[in-house]
């Protein structure tokens, strides 16, 4: 995924890679607000991730939803959105990287 973002000329940032003693939620909000696109892995429908997806959508950000393997039954508010599924294997992640590249370059 990171490779696809780089090839599209985008810088990919993950909040779990920020090495400062700052408030995590505040860091998430700042990253979303300063981003042109947000890629969210909704595998498992983690409530924190779904909250961040809602925040990104509410901010008007291009929000790309990805999900490992089968796509689960989605909450109503995001059930109309495209979900890009991937396999967690070397080939599957390479395909995901290419998909991310195509999505981000089509958005420009």
Give the CA-based shape.
globular
Radius of gyration: 14 Å
Strand order of the largest sheet: 1-2-3
User: What is the H/E string?
Assistant: HHEHEEH
| Strands, total number | 3
Q: Mean pLDDT, as a whole number?
A: 88
| Helical fraction | 40-55%
Structural class: alpha/beta
- Strand percentage, roughly? 5-15%
For this structure, the quaternary state is single chain
Count of DSSP-assigned helices: 4
How many angstroms does the end-to-end distance come to? Answer: 18 Å
Given as residue ranges, the uncertain stretches (5+ residues, pLDDT < 50) are none
Tell me about the largest β-sheet. 3 strands, parallel
Q: What topology does this entry show?
A:
Layout: H1 2-7, H2 24-34, E1 37-41, H3 47-58, E2 62-68, E3 83-86, H4 90-106
Parallel strand pairs: 1-2, 2-3
Question: Outline of this structure?
Answer:
The chain has 108 residues and is an alpha/beta fold. The chain contains four helices and three strands; from the N terminus they run ααβαββα.
Describe this structure in words.
The protein is an alpha/beta fold. It contains four helices and three strands, in the order H-H-E-H-E-E-H. Strands 1-2-3 form a three-stranded parallel beta sheet, with helices on both faces. The radius of gyration is 14 Å and the shape is globular. The two termini are 18 Å apart.
């Amino acid at each position: 995924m990171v490779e696809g973002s780089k090839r599209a000329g985008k810088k990919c940032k993950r909040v779990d890679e920020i090495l400062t003693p700052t408030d995590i939620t505040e860091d998430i909000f700042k990253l979303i607000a300063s981003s042109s696109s947000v890629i969210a892995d909704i595998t498992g429908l983690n409530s924190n991730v779904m909250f961040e997806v809602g925040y990104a959508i509410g901010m008007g950000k291009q929000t790309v939803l990805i999900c490992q393997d089968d796509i689960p039954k989605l909450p109503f508010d995001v059930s109309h959105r495209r979900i890009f599924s991937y396999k967690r294997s070397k080939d599957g992640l390479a395909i995901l990287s290419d998909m991310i590249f195509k999505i981000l370059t089509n958005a420009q």
